[in-house]
Amino acid sequence: xxxxxxxxxxxxxxxxxxxxxxxxxxxxxxxxxxxxxxxxxxxxxxxxxxxxxxxxxxxxxxxxxxxxxxxxxxxxxxxxxxxxxxxxxxxxxxxxxxxxxxxxxxxxxxxxxxxxxxxxxxxxxxxxxxxxx
Amino acid sequence: xxxxxxxxxxxxxxxxxxxxxxxxxxxxxxxxxxxxxxxxxxxxxxxxxxxxxxxxxxxxxxxxxxxxxxxxxxxxxxxxxxxxxxxxxxxxxxxxxxxxxxxxxxxxxxxxxxxxxxxxxxxxxxxxxxxxxxxx
Lengths: 133, 136
Hints:
The structure holds 2 protein chains of 2 kinds. By secondary structure, chain A is of the alpha+beta class. Helices cover 45% and strands 21% of the residues of chain A. In chain A, helix 1 (3-29) packs antiparallel against helix 2 (97-129). By secondary structure, chain B is mostly helical. Chain B starts with a helix and ends with a helix. In chain B, 32% of the residues are buried. The chains are: A alpha+beta, B mainly alpha. Chains A and B meet through helix 1, strand 2, strand 3 and helix 2 of A and helix 2 and helix 4 of B.
């Protein structure tokens, strides 16, 4: 495993974490979306990560899939809403803003750490190239 | 020849870069379910670099398996005789992940400093040989 394989590992982690951040952004954006039927209402999405062996050594990350939350979509009584059903209810998304906040913090910290790893690997590789000068 | 000039530092550099790759894999997989954190044993690497007992200055390389693809595993785990071992977690997560982010960061930093130390040892050796060759 060379120092260069660290770039592959760290970049795979960075793209996985940015996808997670993206999913969190979609969830937060749709936190207040409503729908007429519960099955049409927005479900919180979360990526599932999986380890993957990189070509030249090291274990990177890839996104295995996106899961949708099974939590019930709460029914809100809004008879004035054009999307309300005949009883006057709309179904809101099942996004939990607290969970999403934690997810966002965790994803951005992980992203930062991987940027630091890459930076350290770059500096050490450059110093190795300057050996004996 | 190069072993006599650089001593153990050439292999130390290999060990450090290998370990850095493993630690960066641990950091990258901090949120991956079922990922088990790994590390290289320094003791094994040192014993392999020091060679078999009774052979002074011998560089004992363990028998290596022939690899046709970089994805295939070596007999000893890492190329320089160090065993890749699973870390014993203090507090394993429910999803099977055993990465402790703080420890991994500390080890990564420590390993990077040790890498630079090895580099400066090599640098001073190269400078010494250079001045011996030029005779000034």
